[in-house]
Write a structure and sequence with these properties.
By secondary structure, the chain is α/β, with parallel strands linked by helices. It has one domain: TIM Barrel, CATH 3.20.20.20. The protein contains 11 helices and 10 strands. The strands form 2 sheets. Strands 8-7-6-5-4-3-10-9 form an 8-stranded parallel sheet. β4, α3 (114-127) and β5 (132-135) form a beta-alpha-beta unit. The longest helix is centred in the last third of the chain and has 19 residues, at 276-294.
């Protein structure tokens, strides 16, 4: 006897954002990605459509980063060459996109000029054909200069630029509108600020389909459960028809996971914790896996093995489980 299972469909779905632009679209990318579009909770294929596969972007910086040796050894010889670093991430490690972090612009560090930062982004664009996600050094005044210059110099590439925040969103939003890029709207683990920021950005007439949410996260054991709850609330709001919570979600997995002591402390210091590289890989991969279940569409990651494990998990989660 056949059993009819009554399913309650969502009222709405997550919005979609396209990253990158091909030559025909005015850019130079050889591949583009669309994220979001789900009409059900993450990977609930039986409840609705999981429209687009989540993507993994690997991080590249414009200066040599202060990362543990267990991480830097996989990029030996290219850490001071952003273009080659990006190419290695794509060709050898399978990155779907490249996350360019312009840390060298920091006034207390290398204090690179906007022109120098533009040159780095151009170098990466020339080296790879995947979409780019570009952020600054997180100093408001300097980022306004740098990211505005990047937006203008890379007009047509449909970059994803960040970060637009509640107290500093106008310059970046305006640059994205004029030069046709997407923006990352970042809020500090607060669903109300997340929604309000999206309202402010859309009031400047940037379409919702060009906004990606970064609700801020914590790594495994360092606040991930709170980040998970915020992301879950955003997804539920989107499925219930709240347009100001319906944007795809981006998570800075690598940065947060590798800040954890458990991910980078030496084996000599904590012999009972096991091999330090294995710990770091698993800390990043498990953080990513948890956030996928909360609704992440874009994961910014670092370790190639963690990327491999995460992409394998995505393959399995994207298998149809409808009944």
């Amino acid at each position: 006897m056949a059993v009819n299972i009554i399913k309650e469909k969502s009222l709405a779905k997550v919005g979609q954002v396209k990253l990158g632009a091909t030559k025909e679209e005015g850019g130079t990318r050889t591949v583009t990605y669309t994220v979001g579009g789900d009409s059900a909770l993450p990977f609930h294929h039986f409840d609705g459509e999981i429209a687009n596969r989540p993507i993994v972007a690997m991080e590249v910086q414009d200066i040599k980063p202060n990362w543990p040796e267990t991480l830097t050894k996989h990029f030996e010889g290219v850490l001071d060459k952003p273009g080659e670093w990006a190419k290695k991430c794509v060709d050898e490690y399978g990155a779907d996109a490249i996350y360019v972090r312009l840390e060298g612009a920091h006034p207390d560090g290398a204090d690179k000029s906007p022109d120098q930062c533009v040159a780095v982004v151009k170098e990466v664009l020339d080296a790879v054909g995947v979409p780019l996600i570009v952020t600054g050094c997180e100093v408001e005044d300097k980022d306004n200069e740098v990211l505005t210059a990047v937006a203008e110099a890379c007009a047509g590439e449909n970059l994803l630029l960040g970060f637009a925040e509640q107290e500093n969103y106008k310059s970046l939003t305006a640059a994205c509108m004029v030069h046709k890029h997407n923006v990352i709207a970042r809020s500090p683990l607060d669903i109300n600020i997340c929604k309000q920021l999206n309202i402010l950005i859309t009031e400047m007439n940037l379409p919702t389909e060009r906004i990606v949410i970064d609700p801020s996260i914590g790594g495994l054991g360092y606040g991930i459960e709170y980040a998970y709850s915020i992301m879950e609330r955003a997804r539920l709001g989107a499925l219930q028809g709240d347009k100001m919570l319906s944007m795809p979600i981006l998570c800075t997995v690598g940065k947060e996971a590798w800040r954890a002591k458990e991910a980078n402390a030496s084996q000599e210091e904590y012999p009972g914790w096991g091999d330090e590289e294995d710990r770091g890989i698993l800390w990043e991969a498990v953080t990513a896996s948890a956030l996928l279940q909360a609704g992440a569409s874009i994961l910014l990651m670092r370790h190639p093995k963690a990327v491999e494990l995460t992409k394998r998990a995505i393959d399995q989660l994207m298998e149809d489980n409808s009944y």
